[in-house]
Amino acid sequence: MTDSTPVPDNEIDDQGIIQGVEQLSPEKIERIINEVLSEETGAKLKVYVDTCVHCGLCSEGCHYYVSRDKDPKFSPAGKVKQTMWEIMRKKGKVSPEFIKQAAVIAYTQCNLCKRCAMYCPFGIDIAYVLSVVRRICHRLGVVPLYIQDTAHSHSVTGNQMWVKDDEWVDTLMWQEEEARDEAPNLRIPLDVEGADTFYSVIGPEPKFRAQLIYQAAMIMNAAGEDWTMPSMPGWDNSDMCMFTGDYEMMERLKKMHFEAATKLKAKRIVMGECGHAFRSVYDMGNRALGWKMPPIPIVHALEYYHELFSQDKIKIKHKFDRPVTLHDPCNIVRGRGLHEMARSVVNSTCKTFIEMTPNREHNYCCGAGGGVINCGPPFKNARLDSNKIKAEQLFAAKAKGAEVVIAPCHNCHGGLEDIIHHYGVDMELKFLGDIIYEIMEKPEE
Amino acid sequence: MHDIYAILTGPLAWLSFAVFLGGSLYRFISLYQLARKKDGAVFQYMDLKFALRSIAHWLTPFGAKNMRMNPAMTVVTFAFHIALFIAPLFVFAHVVLIEESFGIHWFTLPDSVADILSIIVVLSCVFFFARRIMRPEVKFLTTWVDIVILIIVAAPFATGVWVFHQWAGFPTMTLVHIFSGELMLAIIPFTKLFHMFLFPFTRGYIGSEFGGVRMAKDW
Question: Most CB contacts within 10 A, which of A17, A185, B79, B103?
Answer without folding.
Answer: A17
